[in-house]
Amino acid sequence: MSKLFGCFFPLLGRRKRHLSSDSDMDSVEEKNVVLAEREDSLFKVHLLGATLLSWKVDDAEILFVSDKAVFDNKKAIRGGIPFVFPQFGPWSAGPQHGFARTSHWKLEKEPEKLPNGDVQAVFTLCDSDSTRALWDYRFKVTYTITLMDKKLNMEVDVKNTGESEFSFTVLLHTYFNVPDVTKCEVTGLKGITYVDKTRNEETFLEDREVVTVAQLTDRVYQNTPSEHSIRVVAGNRTITMRKHNFPDTVIWNPWKEKAKAMSDFGDDEYLNMICVEAGSVSNPVKLGTNQTFHASQVLELT
Ligand SMILES: O=P(O)(O)OC[C@H]1O[C@@H](O)[C@H](O)[C@@H](O)[C@@H]1O
């Protein structure tokens, strides 16, 4: 296995305004963003939350990051693929969507070229005084990201390294970059029950072959099939999401009013994104001492 590089890259210029000076900028660049590249594609990961910031294939950006996203190393990054753990949604013990997306992850293995040409990096998050202050358990999360030919593979392992059993929910909060969300089609949801968070968390049955978004949408589809296709009509691009051991799929778009209310999201950006989020959220996962939970998601561009 040959080492490709461990490379930290400059953040995009447009994000500079969220940092107080160029020297702040330089230190953020050096410490926090990891770049992995192969012939026609790349990914970038911010160590705050191990947030995937970018996945480009042939220069086309597949992920959405808000122009107003804040990069202060504290606030969850608005866009890309934030890592939600150990709680999806509101949480009495701590922040919404848990602490993983606002924790500093360790780069366990710098991007390396594998014998088959894929490029892989590994990130880890272990319990610390600050995580135990909210959630008093010992754990290790290992997040392995592999850049393949027109595919991005994400493997999630959660190990209980402590003495007591715990329960958690976990989700990859994927923001897709779309030219016009109203022309975006998500398949694989027909006949699936969903909890609609915009309608008092009531449960409904999806009867559409193809799900489209034209209003505030916040739905947790339960026990979804292992494969969804997300067709971006305008770009004529299809992304296939394949997931393993992530039984649920969340579809979210804040639409106009909520977009305006979010300080780290542009007023009109709701038109350019759709979140299709694979996770295990409807039923918490129980993990005994020394047990490991494994799940994965692969995105493929066609
Ligand atoms: O603003 P946040 O905390 O990043 O959450 C964004 C959205 O994330 C989605 O996953 C939730 O279903 C929504 O309810 C939530 O509004």
From TrEMBL:
<comment type="pathway">
    <text>Carbohydrate metabolism; galactose metabolism.</text>
</comment>
<dbReference type="InterPro" id="IPR014718">
    <property type="entry name" value="GH-type_carb-bd"/>
</dbReference>
<comment type="function">
    <text>Mutarotase that catalyzes the interconversion of beta-D-galactose and alpha-D-galactose during galactose metabolism. Beta-D-galactose is metabolized in the liver into glucose 1-phosphate, the primary metabolic fuel, by the action of four enzymes that constitute the Leloir pathway: GALM, GALK1 (galactokinase), GALT (galactose-1-phosphate uridylyltransferase) and GALE (UDP-galactose-4'-epimerase). Involved in the maintenance of the equilibrium between the beta- and alpha-anomers of galactose, therefore ensuring a sufficient supply of the alpha-anomer for GALK1.</text>
</comment>
<comment type="similarity">
    <text>Belongs to the glucose-6-phosphate 1-epimerase family.</text>
</comment>
<dbReference type="InterPro" id="IPR011013">
    <property type="entry name" value="Gal_mutarotase_sf_dom"/>
</dbReference>
<keyword id="KW-0413">Isomerase</keyword>
<dbReference type="InterPro" id="IPR008183">
    <property type="entry name" value="Aldose_1/G6P_1-epimerase"/>
</dbReference>
<dbReference type="InterPro" id="IPR025532">
    <property type="entry name" value="G6P_1-epimerase"/>
</dbReference>
<protein>
    <recommendedName>
        <fullName>glucose-6-phosphate 1-epimerase</fullName>
        <ecNumber>5.1.3.15</ecNumber>
    </recommendedName>
</protein>
<dbReference type="Pfam" id="PF01263">
    <property type="entry name" value="Aldose_epim"/>
</dbReference>
